[in-house]
Each structure stands twice: as structure tokens, then as C-alpha cells.
Amino acid sequence: MAKRKEKDVSVETNNKREVIDLKEFMLLDAKMQDEKIKETLDIIYEGKYKIEKKHIEKVLNICFDTKDNEVYLPGSLNIAKNGSKLIFQFKKNGNLGLIILFALAFLFIGGFATYSGVQYLGRLQMNQDLDGDGIPDLNIDIDDDGICDINCDTDKDGKPDRNIDYHNNRKPIFNVVMEDESIFNPINQDINGDGICDINCDTNNDGWPDMNIDYDGDGEVDLDRDIDGDGIKDLDLDTNGDGVCDINCDDDKNNVCDKNCTNINIDDNGGGTSEEGNGGIDINAADLVVIYDNQDVINAENIYPDDQVGQGVNTSIPDLTFEVTNTTNNVLYYDLNWLVTQNTFESDNFWYRVTSDNNGFTQDWTTAPWNDEAFATRIAIEPHSTQNYTISFTLHGTGEEQNYDQGKIFNARVQVNLIEE
Fold it and tell me: Where in the sequence of the chain do the CATH 3.30.465.60 domains occur?
């Protein structure tokens, strides 16, 4: 039925053009943004096509993506950013040729100037829609010349073999055919010869890589990393297909999350087709997102007591600030834990204090821990809300000699653990 409805929407019978002012759009909350996009799509489709969540998400990706400026929806509906305007209008498929130029530019910038752009891989059944959403997934002919450009199925098994895109972004990222017929950035790479995939791993055998993604072909894993070999994505999760980490981001690649951290295990490895346009991971899978504003590790060393302020010694310790966000429609509960690497203080004088807003956990000055421990349990957070935390530290002055407290070290971090009901 989706196919039939898509055919009812034609360029010849619908010359409408709708515009969203992005400056006004960005001021709306998430729900109103979804409603605005749905309303606009309903108007331009004239009610002839059922608007689904995946269509709204594709438009949202364009709104917030600094790299991509346009996307196509069923019926050759083109949505493009032009300055502060988001323009909706029907275009013939031939106009998609601009996208292949962007793909070429992407590869040339990366130093792959031998990529020929359009490879003749045989006249296959073009622009196959695998999931019934009206958007081509396989054997995509970008410039309408009858030759496959993206996601080319050369052995006719219903899976892409050459010039495979990533998250339905219409750019050749994997198994790219070069001018000398060599293959750039292949999928299912076994680097160490142990028979287990290490880079660009297709975990569900649909032809699109799902895990340990090498986005730029330099031989290093960039996104959706499985760091412990259990088949579950742990770090650098790209949830919207823009090639940039969204949650559990490990900036320095030391296998420890640095920002947008969540303690949820993401075990939906999904597929790479355009069914969801996001490799099978929904941002809602990150029920509890933790963002550390400046640092997630406290490292206090050679601190002097706070009653010596103004005496030319260091008595200041930076605050630890972070936010906890509930992305779901339900009340969630979580614990706050100290993970202590080192505490060499001999007295009880090294203190910390916790302040928060929006009914988060609050605690007055108390002695910092020497070992791992939970310091707050079962904290409630309302749906679609954020709690901001500040943890402050001080070496409490006693008004007396405190040589036993000087030159000591406190190194620890705060971990936020979601309680699974």
C-alpha cells in the first residue's frame, strides 16, 4: 500500500512548495517540532501519503546536521536547507546528481582522488525499496543514467556488495570501487586473522556494517565500537547516522566514556538499511543520558586547607558538574556511585558537597570516600527532564597544624547507574 500511495504523489500534479523558518523552528520544544514537520508534510503531500516517525526523523536530521543539507522522501519530495529556511518541494530524481558530487568531494577531501564516481556494475534492477517506505535502498541510481551508484548488488542476492552507504546517507562509505578496480574500506575486516570481524562488521548479514565502523577508511574504528568482544556496541554510538558520536562518546579512545554517557547496554545491533535510517539504534534506547560539562574525573593533589585562603597556596579544587537526562516517557530511577582510584588522605578533612536542581540528590559537606561506594540511591527523574549536578570539594581547615593533610591525593570519578525495574 505504501508503494501505491507513493505513486499518487507526483511532480506533475503537485507543484506545492512549503517553507519552515529554522530560526522559529529551533525555538520550539521537541514535540512541537515533530508536529510542525508532520503538518508541513501533510500539506505538501495533500494527505495522500501516511506520515510516519521515520519520515519526521529524516527531516529532523537535516535540521540539526551541519554536514548534510538535503534529503529525499517518497514521491521525490526534496527537503533542503537554504540559509535559515527549510524548503519542501518535489523534484525529479535527476536532481539527485548533486548528491554524488558531494560524495565525490567527501572522498577527494580524504585523499582518495582516484575514485571514479560512477562505476558500471551491470544494469541491475534499479532503486529497489527493501522495506516498503517508498525510499530506495538497493541498486540506487543517483543520476538516472541506468547505472548503479550506491548500494550495488552485483551478485543479485538482495544485499549490497559495492559502494555501500552508511545509515542511508547516500554516500559511498564501504566497499567503494576505486578507479583501478580496487576496493576501499571493505566490510567484515579480520585484522588479526582470528576469524572474527574487527572493522566494519555486518552482524546480521544484511550487507550493511553495523558495528566497529571505520567511517573514513583509515583502518581505525570510529563509531559503534564493541570494546569487549561481546557483540554489543559499547562506545561512540552514532544514533542518527551523521557520522558523529551521539552517546557514550570516548573522545580520547581510551575505552572510557567521556561525554553523553549512559549506562544502558545497547544490544540492538540492527541493520544498515533505510528501515530506520539509523542502523537499528533509536536515540530512545539511551534512556538515561549523562553529560559531564567539563571533566568526569576529580584529581586533587597538593591541596592546602581552606582556612589558608589568601596565603599564596592552592586551596581551590574545580567543581565536578554534570547533567542527567531522562529521554523516555516514564519516571526512571538511578544511583550515584563513587569510583575511587586513589585517596591518600589520612584524616576525615577532605570533604565534598552535592547540589542539584529539579528534585535531584543534594548533600551537605561530608568526608570523601576512600573506596568505591554508592552515595545516593534510587533517585527519581521525571520523563523528558534534566537534573543538573555540581559536586564541590574542599580540604577543611581545622585552625591547627595540618601537615598530615598536605601533599595528599584524591582521584575518583562519579558513575551514574540506571536502576532497571
Answer: 2-91
Do 125 and 191 meet the contact criterion of CB atoms below 8 Å apart?
Answer: no
Per-residue pLDDT for 29 more than 80? Answer: no
Q: Please give the distance of CA 363 from its chain centroid, rounded to a whole number.
A: 33
**Which CATH number applies to 2-91?**
3.30.465.60
Q: Does 397 score more than 90 pLDDT?
A: no
CA pair distance 3, 129, nearest whole angstrom: 9
The ranges of the chain annotated as CATH 2.60.120 are 289-418
DSSP strands (E only) in 66-123: 70-73, 77-82, 85-90
Burial class (CB in 10 A: 0-12, 13-18, 19+), 97: middle
Q: Which of 230, 243, 235, 228 is nearest to 261 (CA)?
A: 235
Tell me: the pLDDT tens digits for 154-202?
888 889 999 999 887 778 999 998 878 889 999 999 999 999 999 999 9
Please identify, in words, the CATH class of the domain defined by 289-418.
mainly beta
Question: What average pLDDT score do residues 86-114 get?
Answer: 50
- Please say whether the dihedral angle defined by the alpha carbons of residues 239, 138, 141 and 214, taken in this order, is positive or negative: positive
Q: What is the pTM of this model?
A: 0.45
Residues whose CB is less than 8 angstroms from the CB of residue 400 and which lie 6 or more positions away in sequence, other chains included = none
Dist. CA 92–CA 106, nearest whole Å:
24
